[in-house]
Design goal:
alpha/beta, Aspartate Aminotransferase, domain 2, 2 domains, four-stranded antiparallel sheet, 15 helices, globular
């Protein structure tokens, strides 16, 4: 990022209040992260999280419980994106493509500093990371980058998001690979059930295992390390769908032992939509062809860069990604993740006390985090979603005809969850 661009971002709070479309931006955005950190440092736990809630733009009389689809960006992140877009529009004529003036394009640069920050969060070298648009891109980059051939077997599960299965099914139709699905029980309450289901499908022709780290519908935290250990002992490539993970649970790709890992960062890390990552272990990354080919298509020194080149895009989204990483680090990984786990357990513990609730997510807390799915007797999922909104302005997400998926994040509170429980009690 050029010096002029950095200076603009630091100083451009001036004049924003005069723009009507930016009226939602709260006064907290005028503070640097160091000032915000300082203001939070001496607060008690309840006061701390209440003040964190004030760092988000959501209306105070409304509660957002659909983080599994799209996270709410903090004001700090929103401002970073908006200011950068303004800078690019106002000062675009100063660009000379040599580092002076705004950076008008993404999709060509290596963005090493951002990749380094992500590497510290998921424990890998920045050269093993590609900045991509979302998890679906990651799945397709791996599926189409590998030289899978007719007869090669791929193991998936029967609980995949479309972004976790479609590329493999297409390869089955296009190239004749053999596509298998491991059956995962609903609910599932033991790691062994999951591991045994996946491992039972392995044959001498199995080339790849592709499974989710967290199941999108049910919130199950899968035993990925155990599956990857078994796969590695048999020479099987592993690719993990982490769409729901980074920012919800601790992700340590080296400890997991997977070959490939992809994630969407617009969910739990609270980055702007259009930001995702693909990790490829350096020991195997040279085996992946670039799906989108540009200048660096044959760059084997920085393969992460090679795979992320995608042509013209919006560079302000990457400024927002950078800001969301700084916001995450300002709160702190341990505090952030523990808060999500605490609220998720608080919700599940209360749901278990209700006779009219059937918990579809696991009842084993080892397999749970911040995403919980359940159904309520006598009411459909869409009806329950509407009742929660009409009664208390609470917004979880219905899934299909029966289920409600309820996400919790650092901007939620025990009181908001208790209000949801009261709605269910009174149905």
């Amino acid at each position: 990022m050029s010096n002029s661009r950095r200076n603009f971002i630091k100083k451009s709070a001036i004049g924003l209040s005069a723009i009507p479309t930016l009226g939602f931006i709260s006064k907290s955005n005028k503070n640097s992260l160091s000032n915000i950190r300082s203001s939070l440092s001496d607060l008690s736990d309840n006061s701390y999280w209440s003040e964190v809630r004030n760092l988000f733009p959501t209306k105070k009389n409304q509660t957002y419980f659909n983080n599994g689809t799209l996270g709410v960006q903090p004001n700090y992140v929103l401002n970073s994106v908006i200011k950068d877009m303004q800078n690019n529009a106002i000062n675009g004529a100063e660009t000379d493509y040599k580092g002076n003036g705004p950076n008008l394009l993404s999709g060509y640069a290596d963005f090493i500093s951002i990749r380094e920050k992500i590497g510290k969060i998921i424990n890998c070298d920045y050269k093993e990371i590609s900045l991509i648009q979302n998890a679906t891109f990651g799945m397709n980059f791996v599926a189409n980058g590998l030289d899978l051939k007719k007869g090669d077997e791929v193991i998936n599960t029967d609980q995949e998001h479309g972004g976790g299965f479609a590329a493999w099914r297409q390869l089955a139709k296009r190239k004749g690979i053999v596509y298998k699905q491991a059956h995962i029980p609903v609910p599932v309450n033991s790691k062994e059930e999951i591991i045994n289901s996946v491992v039972s499908l392995i044959t001498k022709k199995t080339k790849l295992i592709a499974v989710p780290h967290i199941v999108s519908v049910y919130g199950t935290v899968m035993p990925i390390k155990e599956i990857c250990d078994i796969a590695k002992s048999k020479g099987i490539f592993t690719v993990i769908d982490g769409a729901q993970t980074v920012g919800q649970i601790d992700v340590n790709v080296k400890n997991l032992g997977c070959d490939a890992y992809y994630s969407s960062l617009h969910k739990w890390l609270l980055s702007p939509a259009g930001n995702g990552i693909l990790y490829l272990d350096k020991s195997i990354s040279s085996n992946i062809w670039a799906t989108l080919s540009s200048y660096n298509w044959d760059n084997n020194t920085d393969i992460g860069f090679k795979l992320q080149q995608s042509g013209t895009g919006n560079p302000s989204l990457l400024v927002g990604l950078d800001a969301s990483l700084d916001f995450f680090n300002m709160i702190g990984k341990e505090k952030w993740l523990n808060r999500i786990k605490f609220l998720g357990k608080f919700l599940r513990d209360n749901l278990k006390t209700l006779d009219n609730v059937d918990l579809i997510s696991s009842s084993n807390e080892i397999l749970c985090a911040g995403l919980t799915t359940y159904k309520v007797e006598g009411v459909t999922g869409p009806e329950l979603q509407k009742v929660m909104w009409d009664k208390e302005r609470l917004q979880p997400r219905s899934v299909g005809k029966e289920l409600l998926r309820h996400s919790v994040h650092i901007y939620n509170s025990e009181d908001e969850i208790s209000r949801a429980i009261e709605v269910i009690k009174n149905i």
